[in-house]
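Predict structure. Chain length: 205.
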Amino acid sequence: MTYNPEIHHRRSIRLKDYDYSQTGAYFVTVCAKDHACLFGNVEQGEMILNEYGHVVTKCWYDLTNHYAGITLDAFIVMPNHIHCIIVINNDVGAGLNINVGAGFNNKVGVGFNINVGAGLKPAPTNKRHGLSEIVRAFKTFSSRYINQIRNTPGIPVWQRNYYEHVIRTEKEFNQITEYIVNNPIQWELDTENPQNTKGSKLKNA
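Prediction complete.
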């Protein structure tokens, strides 16, 4: 696989004057505040979500209840970050010819019950929503419920910024999906892993 996690983890390659509300597929990485391992642990190459990790998962899936023009594809919650692919469908018939919905998803814990997004009205179907608005909503929803659980109102859960990359080809889409699926297996080498001494030097790059 040619996709380089050393680069994509660290820097946004946000395109100048690019309209991030237009139809397309976007790879997004969002990291926890101070790279804290809040969402669970990787055990024998498998991500085991804790209660906060399940909140993050539910908030991710709940986005389609508030943003009609999106499709959620590959997604993984890691101990201190998430990777995901969001497909924005604002222009019918446009965009990449990709197999949307073929990605890997975390398993939601049986019996976990939280009314994510309660009191929020679904977004109107005729309004264009940009990637930054969608990511901001995800971070806001998940932070709110995690802070309710741990009784820490207003404490940041996520870093302020996030990484995004415009996926331009089906080959690239498949490569990034593979990277997301294999993230738990690669955790020992991941530059986000605080126990990875090589990776720790790159965290603030």
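Summary: The first helix runs from residue 5 to 8.
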